[in-house]
Specification:
The chain is mainly α. It has a domain of 140 residues. 61% of the residues lie in helices and 5% in strands. It is built from 15 helices and six strands. The strands form three sheets. Strands 1-2 form a two-stranded antiparallel ribbon. Strands 3-4 form a two-stranded antiparallel ribbon. Strands 5-6 form a two-stranded antiparallel sheet. The longest helix is centred in the first third of the chain and has 24 residues. It starts with a helix and ends with a helix.
Length: 345
């Protein structure tokens, strides 16, 4: 009897070891990586089609827009990198954009500010639509005219807001967030306005490192999550000093252990957190750390794969037939960020 129990335990622990090896190896193996990504897309597409974005909206101030934007961008980047131009993915992106443009999404943002609906909404929605129109997947879209017209409307809205003098635009009434403005810069086609807009951001911070501040009314406070996102945006617009900017950001926020990069949310290493930061443990932020994976991958840092592999291994991934999810389906926003990071690698 004892020998039988020992045998069962031996095979159980062997299965656990094999499971962790496969999870860790996923970003380094093309076939495992593609299977992981496509299964994640399938799972997240299904739950958003079932209305889970509305549930996320009830938990996070911008949950509906953010969830649909991250899924659509992840699909587009996956298809662009793998040349997997599949009409089924186009249908998913179409549905994400229809949800982004819906009255149900718009009602969460103010219309009486300049630009109407604010920079978070305009920046992320236009970034999705412009990325789509530039991709080979767009040829399969069933709502091409609506997307082109809506993107033109937002672009005109943003340029009109900058017509007299370039300034930082509000996300909500009386408050602006530099990261939202940077997403807006990524989304517009006018490179001259984009350059002036970025210069305005860089000159508006009072922090001694010249890293862009987190919130508009706190000119000397920087945060790990927003700094990681803004560094990523700079890499996407080919900012000439992005490597030096990234080095300054990493010196303050990024700690590395055995190739695994974890990121402080607050400069002082405190556990202060909010919706933007996600959970913070021992000073390290969940959102900042996952966003940093994507940022460093966009700049060619191979440690981003090690970090993603580590989090893929410890987050209880269940990777079944055409479905992959983390943390027992309890935190789909984590799934979305992990997916968006994975497609950069």
């Amino acid at each position: 009897m004892k020998s039988k129990v020992r045998s069962i335990l031996k095979y159980f622990f062997l299965c656990i070891i094999v499971y962790f090896i496969i999870c860790f190896a996923t970003p380094f193996n093309k076939s495992l990586r593609h299977r992981s990504t496509e299964n994640q897309i399938n799972y997240l597409s299904h739950i958003l089609d079932q209305g889970y974005d509305d549930h996320l909206q009830s938990r996070y101030p911008e949950g509906k827009v953010f969830s649909n934007a991250l899924l659509a961008l992840s699909i587009l980047e996956h298809c662009n990198k793998t040349e997997n131009v599949n009409a089924k993915y186009s249908k998913t992106v179409d549905k994400c954009i229809q949800r982004l443009l819906s009255e149900n999404s718009l009602k969460n943002f103010p219309t009486h500010i300049n630009p109407p609906y604010g920079m978070f909404y305009n920046g992320w929605v236009n970034h999705v639509m412009v990325s789509y129109t530039k991709s080979s997947l767009f040829q399969f879209s069933e709502i091409q005219k609506e997307i082109l017209a809506s993107s033109q409307t937002i672009e005109s809205r943003l340029l009109s807001a900058q017509k007299d003098s370039v300034r930082l635009l509000d996300s909500y009434e009386g408050s602006y967030w530099p990261a939202d403005n940077l997403i807006g810069i990524v989304s517009i086609k006018d490179s001259v306005i984009g350059r002036l807009w970025l210069e305005k951001q860089l000159s508006g911070t009072y922090h001694p490192t010249k890293l862009i501040n987190h919130a508009g009314d706190q000119h000397s406070i920087i945060r790990g999550s927003s700094s990681a996102l803004m560094t990523y945006c700079m890499s996407k617009i080919s900012y000439s000093d992005v490597i030096q900017y990234n080095d300054r950001y990493k010196k303050i926020f990024v700690d590395q252990y055995f190739g695994i990069q974890i990121v402080k949310e607050n400069e002082n290493g405190s556990n202060d957190s909010d919706y933007d930061s996600g959970p913070v443990f021992f000073g390290y932020g969940a959102t900042a750390t996952i966003m940093n994976m994507k940022t460093q991958a966009s700049l060619g840092d191979q440690n981003s794969k090690i970090t993603w592999a580590f989090f893929n291994s410890i987050s209880f991934p269940i990777n079944l037939v055409q479905s992959k999810y983390y943390l027992f389906k309890q935190e789909p926003m984590f799934d979305l960020f992990m997916l968006w990071a994975a497609v950069e690698m």
